[in-house]
Each structure stands twice: as C-alpha cells, then as structure tokens.
C-alpha cells in the first residue's frame, strides 16, 4: 500500500492494541473504507472535502481516516463515540436503551456522534467563517465513525466490551475477538489472498460494488426513511445482528480461530467495508449537495 509499509502499520497497530479500550477497524480497514468512498464522491462533495482536509492529509481523505483513533487518548471525551454496546445476548439495537457511555451518560455513543458531525457539516454551506464548529474535525470524525459502526463488534455486548475481553487464538497468536474483527481478518486476507497489497483488496471490493453488488450498492445508499441524510440506527442494527450471527458464533473464550472461521467471516468483513464506503460517499454527497438541502440530519 502506498505511503506506509506493513512494518510501520504493524507497529502502530501493536501499540494501539496494548492500550485498553475499544478501537475501531484497524488502520487498514479505515483506509479501505475511505478509499472506496473517495471513488464515489460527486463534484460538490469532492470540492468540499478537498477544502476541509487538513494539510497533513495531502489531499487524500483515506490518509486521515484513522485520525480519531490517534487522538482519542488526547481528546478523552471522544473515546465513547467509537462504539455502542447492547445488553448481553440481546441481538437487537434500541437507540434510547443503548446509546450511552459506560457511566450511563445518554447520547455518548457512535450513533449520536454520526448525527452530531453530520449536523455540523450541514452548516458548511452557511460559509465556513460563520460556522462555530471545526468542520475539518467534523469531516474526519464522521468518516471514521461511519466506518466504525459497520464493524459488527462495535455494536457488541456490554459484558465482554464488544469482544475485547474474549481472549482467543487467531491461528497461533493470542489476541481478543474484537481485535480479530478490527485487524486480523483483514491482515490475514491481505497477506494470503492479496499478495500483501491492501490496494489489491480494495480493488477487488470496488469491482464487486459495481458488479456483483450493483443492486445492493443502490439500496445501501438510501435510508429506509429516505428523508434522512444518514441513518446510523439502521447500520447499528445490522452490526449487532452480524455480531450474533458471525462474530460471536464459535468464538468462545479460549477457542482457536483458524481457516474455518477466516474463510466464512472474510466475506462478511469485505461486504461491511464496501457498505461503509458506499454509505460514507452517499452521506457526504447529500451533505454537500448544492441542489437539495436537507433540513435536518
Ligand atoms: C427501547 O427502549 C426503551 C427504553 O428502555 C423502551 O421504552 C422502548 O419500548 C424500546 N423500544 C423498542 C422498540 O423495543
Ligand atoms: C459533538 O461534537 C462536539 C465537537 O466535536 C463534541 O464536543 C461533542 O462531544 C460531540 N457529541 C457527540 C455525541 O458526538
Ligand atoms: C481544526 O482542527 C484541526 C485538526 O484538529 C486543527 O489542525 C485546526 O487548527 C483546527 N482549526 C481551527 C480553526 O481551530
Ligand atoms: C464479491 O462478491 C461475491 C458475491 O457476493 C462474494 O462471494 C465475494 O466474497 C466478494 N469478494 C470481495 C472481494 O468482496
Ligand atoms: C454503484 O454502481 C454504479 C454502476 O457501476 C456506479 O456508477 C456507482 O458509482 C456505484 N456506487 C455508488 C456509491 O453509487
Ligand atoms: C421514500 O421515497 C419514495 C419515493 O420518493 C416514497 O414513495 C416513499 O414514501 C418514501 N418513504 C419514506 C419512508 O419516506
Ligand atoms: Zn474508532
């Protein structure tokens, strides 16, 4: 992959994993999602994104989609915004029941954060100088959180912290279930299927979006309540269902996950990367559209 080598990526991920708490998709996952999204931005959205990107992005949204993970220990208040937990063994999402942080503060979770930063970005057209928000940060947070909410274990059970306390082996390596879904499945796929090149994995997913998933691609873009700019509650419902059906299944504490688990779960991961990329692009296209202006997030 361009820009940074695998060794560097591994070091950064290794460091992040040692820090307790729940992280998003790994760096590769977020990079892939934002790369996919960039390919589907319309002219208005491209122009706005270019204007809002920080200097260190060098014009590439994908390069900075992990930024919220890098600053989350500095911006402590943002830590709870990367995920949402449901009551143990309930495989559904209920926003008023579930959206709170571990201290019980309501509205501190990933679905609320997605509404928050969408609403902030909708003030972009009011002219930047008048905005009371930092829209650069809003763009990076929104792009990151739309990714996170599609990682099934970012909408996992409270008791095991979305799989963080479920210790398993990934092949021979000791890790936890959350990390398997953030990083290991993607890393193993890149290594064994895509000749160690993340770009090849991204291209394979992009081909599917315009081919095998052509019809899905269009339904992914719209919210069931199609007046909405974004619909995080729907994405959260999908994630907890996938967590129950695929992530938690056959992954009890102490188990070893290898070929069977890898082969059956990789397609789920690839589809979630595709969905979040398509939805991020559709959301940014709606936000920055110069024609239609939605009143509310
Ligand atoms: C969601 O949770 C709230 C608060 O616990 C409850 O009042 C409401 O009935 C639940 N909604 C659904 C659809 O289950
Ligand atoms: C909304 O965004 C502001 C500015 O970044 C932040 O202070 C606040 O905690 C955010 N709230 C949520 C729920 O995302
Ligand atoms: C907005 O946030 C970015 C990233 O944290 C920072 O570099 C920039 O200085 C901020 N802009 C303003 C006007 O505060
Ligand atoms: C492409 O789509 C097919 C059919 O849904 C699926 O089996 C395959 O895993 C997908 N590949 C990628 C790279 O997403
Ligand atoms: C969906 O597929 C069509 C047809 O290839 C393509 O034009 C479009 O850009 C794809 N993605 C999105 C997000 O619309
Ligand atoms: C979505 O849009 C279609 C066509 O524009 C309309 O018929 C339908 O009622 C809308 N559904 C919702 C839930 O708003
Ligand atoms: Zn995250």
TrEMBL record:
Keywords from the named record: Disulfide bond, Endonuclease, Glycoprotein, Hydrolase, Membrane, Metal-binding, Nuclease, Signal, Transmembrane, Transmembrane helix
Transmembrane segments: 6-26
Keyword Cell membrane on entry: no
Keyword Hydrolase: yes
Domain of life: Eukaryota
E.C. designation(s): 3.1.30.1
Coiled coil: none
Pfam families: S1-P1_nuclease (PF02265)
Catalytic activity annotation: Endonucleolytic cleavage to 5'-phosphomononucleotide and 5'-phosphooligonucleotide end-products
GO molecular function: metal ion binding; nucleic acid binding; RNA endonuclease activity; single-stranded DNA endodeoxyribonuclease activity
Biological process terms in GO annotation: DNA catabolic process
Entries under InterPro entries matching the protein: PLipase_C/P1_nuclease_dom_sf (IPR008947), S1/P1nuclease (IPR003154)
Group of enzyme by EC: hydrolase
Similarity field: Belongs to the nuclease type I family.
Subunit composition and interactions: Monomer.
Protein name: Aspergillus nuclease S1
Organism per entry: Rubus argutus (Southern blackberry)
